[in-house]
Amino acid sequence: MNMPTTGISKFLDKLIRPIFDKHARSTTIIDGVDLIHRLEAYTTNGYLKPKTYLCTFDITDLYTMLPQKESLHILIEFLLQHENVFAYEKKFYRQVIGGAMGSAFTLTLANIFMWKWQRQLAHRLQVLNETYGRYVDDTFLTSNDSLQSIDQMLDEANDLHPNIKLVRKIGRGVPFLDVIIENRKGTLTTSVYHKEAAEPYGVPFGSGHLGHVFRNTVDTAITRAVSYSTTLSQFEEEIRQMKLMFLYNG
């Protein structure tokens, strides 16, 4: 976090990220609400079919496996190779693969690289007439092709770069970000997604935080439940889970 080039990293990020964000907005998913709005438009336009598969995948260890030379050639290679220098047991080390976790510019570089990689993947998707979107290293796409064809396409995508390996989920229902997306015989439904490993913890009410912290925690949870739940039963189930979490945390 306090390397000799942290300042220039933040400076370059400030310069380059707005340009990237502008050009990549059409395929960048901002959050769960943005995802649902895009899916609603996708459904309204008649693209969702009963046979449509939903697929998500993320890239394994993207930041630390980020290809340096491909990212932004000489300038970025210099930045990355000289940025993450550290000492351990009286020896100096320099990271030669990937970027520094926590660096402002590593996120922008990862976005740029993934945007390029996704465009390569999109060429394969064009023949299938799909939709896709990305949130950093997480990608969502739909396909009306067979499971075998989707698996084969993603197997080939795994070969696009030696550093990039993806983990996939395909089915009529998949989680993406904090949303569960389901294709119920051609009808789109969404609800709040909770990771299986997630514990029911929030900010303990007995902690020393100011009152607005607790209010914001409740407001955010309720807003997400309202925004993500397609049916009343899904909303009621999410409210039940919220009550249990808040009771658990005092």
TrEMBL record:
<keyword id="KW-0812">Transmembrane</keyword>
<dbReference type="InterPro" id="IPR000477">
    <property type="entry name" value="RT_dom"/>
</dbReference>
<dbReference type="InterPro" id="IPR058912">
    <property type="entry name" value="HTH_animal"/>
</dbReference>
<keyword id="KW-0472">Membrane</keyword>
<keyword id="KW-1133">Transmembrane helix</keyword>
<dbReference type="Pfam" id="PF26215">
    <property type="entry name" value="HTH_animal"/>
</dbReference>
<protein>
    <recommendedName>
        <fullName>Reverse transcriptase domain-containing protein</fullName>
    </recommendedName>
</protein>
<feature type="transmembrane region" description="Helical">
    <location>
        <begin position="92"/>
        <end position="115"/>
    </location>
</feature>
<feature type="domain" description="Reverse transcriptase">
    <location>
        <begin position="1"/>
        <end position="205"/>
    </location>
</feature>
